[in-house]
Amino acid sequence: MVAVLPGTDRDRYVLVTAHYDTVSLHRRPKFTDAERAADLVKRGMAEAEAQQVIRLFPTEDTVAEVDNEATAAETISPGVTDDGSGTAAVLELARVMSQYQFDKTVVFVAFAGEEIGLEAAKLMPPSPSRRACRSPC
Question: What pTM did the predictor assign?
Answer without folding.
Answer: 0.52
